[in-house]
Structure formats: C-alpha cells, structure tokens
Amino acid sequence: MDAVIASLPEYWDGFLRTLYLSVISGIIALIVGTLLAAMRVSPVAALRGFSMFYVEVARNTPLTIIFFFAAIVLPRLGVKFEQFEVAAIIALSSYTAAFIAEAVRSGVNSVPVGQAEAARSIGMTFTQVLGFIVLPQAVRTVVPPLINILIALVKNSSVAGAFFVLELFGYGRQLSNDYGNQVLWILLGVAFFYLLITVPLGLLAHFVERKVAIAR
Amino acid sequence: MTSVLYDVPGPKARLYSLIGSAAGILIILGVLAIAVTTLAQQGIFDADRWEIFYGPMAPDVWNLIGQGILSTLAAAAVAAIIAFPLGIALCLLRISLIPWIRIPTQVVLEFLRGMPVVLMMLFVLLVFATGQFQAVVVGLVLYNAAIFAEILRAGIQSLPKGQREAGLAIGLRSFQSRMSIEFPQAVRRMLPSLVAQLVVLLKDTSLGYIVGYEELLRKIQIMADFLGPDFLFPAFFVGAAIYILINLTVSRIAIMIERRGSKKAAGGVAAPSLRTGLMVGGNDPIAKDSVEGPDKK
C-alpha cells in the first residue's frame, strides 16, 4: 500500500498521459471516422471502395500489430518521431477511426429513408441532405456507441505502455519492477486510475442512451 | 439508404463520378507509389530480403511462424472455451432475483469491463506468478466472460415479457424458465454479437506479445532480432498479413451467421431491431460493431 502512496506522482503523470493520448487520438479518430463514413455513402465509387477497404482491414488488424508497425517498423523505414507519443497517437487514431466510421454509418442507416427522400424532394443536394437532415439525426443514435468506442480507446491506450510510452500501464510495468514485493497493490492502483476514466464515461453513455436516443 | 441521398446519376453525373473515381484511384495509387519507391530505395524489395521465405532458411522460418500461429490459436481456443460457460454463469448471477447476488455481480462485471485486458494479463502474470500462457488465457477469459455475460443479458432483456410469464404460468421455476425458455432464445438472438466477440478475443491474443507470450507477433520479432534489422519489414509484413487473413476469415463467418440469423427470427418471435451494431453488448465497441447490422434500407 505504501508503495502506491510513495509513487503517487508517477501515477498522476501516467494518468495525465493516458488522458492526453486518449483525448488527442479521440479527436483525430472522430474527424477521420466521420470523413470515412461520409466517403462510404458518397456517390464516388473510388471513395466508397477506399473507405470500405480501410475500415475492413483496420478492424481486423490487432491493435498490437498497428502499434508494432508505428513504433518499431516505421522508424526502421526512416520515419523518425521526436517522441513515441506520436507513434501511439497515429496507431490509436487510425485504429479507432475505423470503428467510429462503422458506428456513424449505422447511425446514418438508422435515419428513416423518408427523411432523406423529403430533403431530396425539396431540392437539397447531397451535401445539404447529409449535413442538415441526416447527420444531425444520426448523431442522436450514434452518441451512445461513440462513447463506448471512446471508453475502449482509453483502455486500448494501455497498449502504448508496451511501446515506450510512459502512460498508466507503462508506469504500472515500471513500478511493479521497482516494488517487486508489492505488485498486487501497484497494479490495483493502476486499475483504479483506469476505472476513474472508464466508469464515469460508462455512466455517461448509459445516461445519454436514455436521455438523447430516440426510439424509432 | 445510399441511393436516396442523391439522384440516380444521369449521364453527366456518371461522367463526373467516373472522373472522380479515376482521380481518387490516381491519388491512392500515387500515395502507394511514393510509399513503394521510398521503400524500394531502402532495398526492401531486394530479393535477398525476402529470401528467408523461400531460400535455405525457409523451413525454419515457416516452422517458427507456424508455431506462432498455433500458440495464437491455442490461447484463443482455450480462452473461448472457458469464457463462454463462465459468461453464462455470470449472466445468471447478474439477472438473479436476489439483490445480494445481483448487485455484487454487477460491480464485478463493471470492474472487469472497465479494465484494459493487458493490465489483467500482467496482473495474473506478476501477482500469481503463472506462466505466460496462463496469464494470457486468464486475462482473456475474465474480460470476455464479462462481455459474454452482458451480451446474453441484453439478449434476455430483448425477449418479450410473455416468454418468461408463460414459463412461470405453466409451473416452471424461475431458474427452469431461464434455462429452458429464455437462454436458448437469447443465445440465438445474440449469436452474431457472440461470434463478433470471438473475433475480438482472437485479436486480443496479440496482446500476449506484451506479456511475453510467444505468439505470432513475438515470434516475428524474435525472428527479426535473430536475422538482423534488414529482415524486420519482410517478417512483419508476412506476420501481419497472416494475422489479418485469419481475422478476416473469422469475421466473414460471423457476418454469414448474422445474415442467416436475421433471416429466420430467433425462436419464431418477432426479431428485435437487430442492430447488433448499436445498443446491445458490453463496453466494447468491437463487441458491438464488428458485425455489420443488416442494412435495413
């Protein structure tokens, strides 16, 4: 127990870095994912194909492999990073974007056809239909799964700890080396900090699901 | 849906779309070409780099890769076989009528679901001083059993109330009704999500790399370390391709099951809005989104 208290500064540093990784990759993934979803429903076949291919491959690749690629293979190929955080953010956001694209797409699919038909019939263009009619409605169905994806993102950021980034999991590994006899408490401490992020987010998802989501 | 978003393209629009497609393909090809030339400058495509896969070393290399695949599959299989019954048990506890059982189970499930799988593996490895294989399996089992339990619970809750009421009315005990009426229907309804979760489990075995379990990725690294940095890229490329191929195959099977399942509504009851993608399942997006919901429009 005292090992946990003694290493509170490390925990705090790791906690902040986990948050940092999650927030930055979350924002990038949200933008890229939405773009991918829009490409997926667009009239241009090449964009549709690319989006489909990307989503399919990224969802079926283990995150560890993506990290391995970003943190170990890329530098060997001459792409050097100042910090390994950059590699972690690239890996996390490219992985998560695929899931976000899927969630947004199924949200778009959940908007009744009549809405889009009505919008089309008053002469709106593709961009207008998507931007003013479909996406605003899709957002409501999409928010709870999106929060779940972000929770998974927080948990997935732990993989970064194995690839030279000192976030919560990374510190957990380091500290359990330093305090070999108190591993149990050290790791429970790490677990506590993860729950500090994931449980409130989970509650939020639950709340939003009941409040915002509309029954169709 | 897609076709409603814009007019059926006329000749002009088709032309634009064609031009757009061509431009898109050109851009993608261009990016690829840049990547390939950069790689080629570093001699990635020199034949001797890839010789490990067909030259004199090939039998050893493939042997190592084979071992890696086997240990990946073994961990996934063992974990799945243990996690599923455990998930059913947890689900039963979670929907128990007795608050003293239900609430602690809920807390435990929340705990397990809110935790990174790697952390659980490391925990088992260090605290219980087990071997790597056990650590990987236990980590996977704990996490996935919790997810299975949540999926099954969602399935049971999606059943019409009348199912349980009818069971109780003909004199079944609560437990009997759960086992012989509700569970079979819940499993059938949730089959797509369950299989999707199996894909996640398979993917997560790669986390074993982090705790030092010698699965495919670790073998690849061992190989690259042994052969020298020149061979890192070829080795990684082949390993990743194998991983993705295995996962894609299992995903395809999952989608096939979902297609079949959504055709005949489970148990003759009206199918729930089978948006496996959205509401059901646990904390894990993968649990819920890796199988495409049937496109309703």
UniProtKB/TrEMBL annotation, chain A:
Subcellular location: Cell membrane
Keyword Calcium recorded: no
Membrane topology of this protein: Multi-pass membrane protein
Cited Pfam families: BPD_transp_1 (PF00528)
Transmembrane segments: 19-41, 61-79, 86-106, 118-135, 147-171, 183-208
Domain ABC transmembrane type-1, first and last residues per copy: 15-205
Main location: membrane
Keywords annotated in UniProt: Amino-acid transport, Cell membrane, Membrane, Transmembrane, Transmembrane helix, Transport
Keyword Transport in record: yes
Source domain of life: Bacteria
Entry-linked NCBIfam families: HEQRo_perm_3TM
Family as reported in the entry's similarity comment: Belongs to the binding-protein-dependent transport system permease family. HisMQ subfamily.
Name this polypeptide is given: Glutamate transport system permease protein
Automatic annotation (TrEMBL), chain B:
Main location class: membrane
Superkingdom assignment: Bacteria
Gene3D superfamilies reported in the protein's UniProt record: MetI-like
Cell compartments where the protein resides: Cell membrane
Entry keywords, A to Z: Cell membrane, Membrane, Transmembrane, Transmembrane helix, Transport
Membrane-spanning ranges: 15-44, 64-95, 107-129, 231-255
Name of this chain's protein: Glutamate transport system permease protein
Organism from which the protein derives: Paenarthrobacter histidinolovorans
Phylogenetic classification of the source organism: Bacteria, Bacillati, Actinomycetota, Actinomycetes, Micrococcales
